[in-house]
């Protein structure tokens, strides 16, 4: 018998059905959550910026359909706990999406009662259903929120955000009325933000432990040397100051600062008597000493989290003119962070006592960076641009050294 196709009558499109739209918008927000978690897995510990995540989610919920097919509130207020108080950020809808209206607003716990911060579920409120007039309805909202909204608040939907930083999402002034369907969308966004805030707290704790362990490893590597943990701390502080002055973004400057602590980690393989020898090294001893750069690369390994530390350990004794070690790199062949650490390391070495020399004053050290000495030729050994920046901010180095010294 020949196969006969069945005619299937599909239901009409439900583009204007609020329940259908709320379900679709919830899926959009969950997709954003999944992408944010993927970012965390690939780029930990860089947490996606919370404000950008909020804006992205809000825009997906309201701008994904042609105009008139998605009900959008006029404003969204994001409230979260900050120590003993709450902080709220107000966003206004625009043709380009939601955008911040003003700096964060500080709120006391008493000022959040209308936003269900302590409630277990959602609040949907329309002033016509409250048995009060529009003017009296305004009294439940923070004066600064009322001012920034710029028109009477007629309705709102609020949903509690759980997690390490509790708070709430409040959407104001939906067209006509606020409904339970809008609340479903806010619920999905609340889950997203609660997850991100909780992960952010955990990532911060892991990051603190990671940085501490780097410092511990660095101090262990210096145990056989005459230098102390103060050298590690000073080098880190110098690096952050110089990196900021050289235009590094704040996050990269911080990574450079803690990575710099491992610049001499390879010395853990250098014989103690060689590190503490009071006289000049023989050629064989010098070759053995120089191997600490290669040992450092091996110890640090290939973890992406420690890529900068590895580059610094392997190249911080290279010279701008190609006369350094271990590979004789020249100019911009040398990683920029290693060029920066070289300046910092030389400065602190000049200021520190060694078995073969006394400590120099700041003025004496700066004279070496200007005219050179029997070991250092500044115009040939250092990146010219970084050297110029260092000379411009050298008083910061004097201040840091005065704050952190064992003698």
Structural overview:
By secondary structure, the chain is an alpha+beta fold. The protein folds into 2 domains: 18-200, GAF domain (Beta-Lactamase, 2-Layer Sandwich), CATH 3.30.450; 222-403, Hypothetical protein af1432, CATH 1.10.3210. The protein is 49% helix and 9% strand. The protein contains 16 helices and 7 strands. Strands 1, 2, 3, 4, 5, 6 and 7 form a 7-stranded antiparallel sheet that branches. Strand 2 and strand 3 form a beta hairpin. The protein is elongated and about 95 Å long. 34% of the residues are buried. Mean pLDDT is 80; it is low at 1-16 and 64-69.
Task: Walk me through the topology.
Elements: H1 18-43, H2 50-63, E1 75-82, E2 85-92, E3 99-100, E4 105-107, E5 123-126, H3 134-137, H4 143-149, E6 155-161, E7 167-172, H5 180-221, H6 229-245, H7 250-259, H8 272-275, H9 283-290, H10 292-300, H11 307-315, H12 336-351, H13 362-371, H14 378-381, H15 384-392, H16 394-403
Antiparallel strand pairs: 1-2, 1-7, 2-3, 2-4, 5-6, 6-7
């Amino acid at each position: 018998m020949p196969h006969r196709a069945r005619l299937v009558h599909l239901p009409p499109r439900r583009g204007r059905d609020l329940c259908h739209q709320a379900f679709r918008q919830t899926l959009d927000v969950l997709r954003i959550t999944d992408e944010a978690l993927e970012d965390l897995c690939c780029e930990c510990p860089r947490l996606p910026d919370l404000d950008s995540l909020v804006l992205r989610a809000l825009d997906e919920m309201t701008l994904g359909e042609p105009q008139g097919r998605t009900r959008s509130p006029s404003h969204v207020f994001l409230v979260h706990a900050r120590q003993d108080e709450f902080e709220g950020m107000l966003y206004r809808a625009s043709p380009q999406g939601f955008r911040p209206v003003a700096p964060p607003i500080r709120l006391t716990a008493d000022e959040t009662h209308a936003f269900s911060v302590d409630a277990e579920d959602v609040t949907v409120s329309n002033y016509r259903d409250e048995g009060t007039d529009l003017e009296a309805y305004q009294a439940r909202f923070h004066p600064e929120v009322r001012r920034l909204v710029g028109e009477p608040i007629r309705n709102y939907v609020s949903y509690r955000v759980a997690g390490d930083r509790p708070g709430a999402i409040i959407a104001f002034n939906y067209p006509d009325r606020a409904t339970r369907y809008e609340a479903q969308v806010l619920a999905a966004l609340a889950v997203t933000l609660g997850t991100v805030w909780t992960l952010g707290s955990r990532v911060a704790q892991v990051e603190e432990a990671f940085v501490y362990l780097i410092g511990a490893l660095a101090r262990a590597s210096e145990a056989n040397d005459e230098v102390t943990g103060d050298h590690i701390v000073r080098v880190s502080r110098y690096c952050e100051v110089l990196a900021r002055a050289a235009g590094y973004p704040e996050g990269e400057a911080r990574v450079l600062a803690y990575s710099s602590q491992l610049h001499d980690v390879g010395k853990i393989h250098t014989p103690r008597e060689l590190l503490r020898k009071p006289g000049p090294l023989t050629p064989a001893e010098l070759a053995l000493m120089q191997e600490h750069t290669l040992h450092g690369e091996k110890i640090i390994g290939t973890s992406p989290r420690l890529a900068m530390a590895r580059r610094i350990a392997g190249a911080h004794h290279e010279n701008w003119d190609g006369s350094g070690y271990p590979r004789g790199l020249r100019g911009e062949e040398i990683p920029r962070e290693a060029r920066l650490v070289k300046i910092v390391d030389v400065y602190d070495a000049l200021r520190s006592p060694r078995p073969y020399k006394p400590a120099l004053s700041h003025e004496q050290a700066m004279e070496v960076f200007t005219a050179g000495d029997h070991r250092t030729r500044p115009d040939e050994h250092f990146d010219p641009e970084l050297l110029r920046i260092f000379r411009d901010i050298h008083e910061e180095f004097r201040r840091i050294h005065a704050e952190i010294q064992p003698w």
